[in-house]
Amino acid sequence: MHPATSRRVDNLDDDDYPAYTMGRAAEMLGTTPAFLRALGEHRLITPLRSEGGHRRYSRYQLRVAARARELVDQGTPIEAACRIIILEDQLEEAQRINEELRAHGHQPKPSA
């Protein structure tokens, strides 16, 4: 296989590869480009830019945007939805770190 072809196939499996244009991302999520721009303004997702300056989204970013849309559809203001998702992500990361520490025999220090 040609190296460039191999790289393109690898990109298809990469959750962080910015494969989707704003229009395609909005279509896939059933939302508008304005909604995606608002998520960027609230710093929930930061799309990469193509050489021409167009926003490009990854599959991971689309999952985050879909979660935001779910919250907004339930009546949560977009600012609050973005904050909730950021806090959920931080909690998940903290839990993952705690599990790793426990697996390696580290015990939490008792509180004073």
UniProtKB/TrEMBL annotation:
<dbReference type="InterPro" id="IPR000551">
    <property type="entry name" value="MerR-type_HTH_dom"/>
</dbReference>
<dbReference type="Pfam" id="PF13411">
    <property type="entry name" value="MerR_1"/>
</dbReference>
<protein>
    <submittedName>
        <fullName>MerR family transcriptional regulator</fullName>
    </submittedName>
</protein>
<dbReference type="InterPro" id="IPR009061">
    <property type="entry name" value="DNA-bd_dom_put_sf"/>
</dbReference>
<feature type="domain" description="HTH merR-type">
    <location>
        <begin position="19"/>
        <end position="87"/>
    </location>
</feature>
